[in-house]
Design brief:
Blueprint (H helix, E strand, L loop, with lengths): L1 H8 L4 E12 L2 E9 L5 E9 L4 H6 L2 H7 L6 E3 L10 E2 L9 H26 L10 H20 L23 H14 L1
Parallel strand pairs: 1-4, 4-5
Antiparallel strand pairs: 1-2, 2-3
Helix pairs in contact: 1-4, 4-6
Length: 193
Amino acid sequence: MKEGFYSMAGFPRVLGCIDCTHVPISASLGDNEATSDHRCVITSLEAKWPGSVHDSRIFAESSLSHKLKQGLFSGVLLGDRGYACQPFLMTPYPDPGEGPQTSFNVPHAKTRVRIEMTFGILKARFTCLRGLRVAPERACRIVTACVVLHNIATIRKERAPPANPQPPDVVDPITLDYPTGRAVRDAIALSFA
């Protein structure tokens, strides 16, 4: 997996890309967080949150986050500015300027776009995810089933329908940035210099 991501833009140690996507449910939204690999296979899914919950909170309470904190995986996830920078979750520099920070952000963006592509393919393949008219509990099961079927289709190399691009994320300015995450990000950025 790391080699597959590295071949995309030269970003080292990437285990996956992470983001959230909204699925409208009758009169509300459900927020689903997923990680994907370089082939657009969804490798983890949190399908149980209302749409008002912030990306960072969903990740902080996920089993994937707990496993990364325990050091069970060697590598990093790539996320957008909706997440806190942590030693195992790299986010872009907010105002990179020139030098290593820009050199970090460019391959970060080129690699992280894979999760946006994955969501686009998933929602194009299963148009029901553009709006479900079921109870939230049932919606979670439908989203999970669609992800499983998407992965089967992707692994079998079935042709994916044209994907609609995802709308840009709303960034919460209160997101915390942990010093240890920044230190790891700085070290990776220096490798691009």
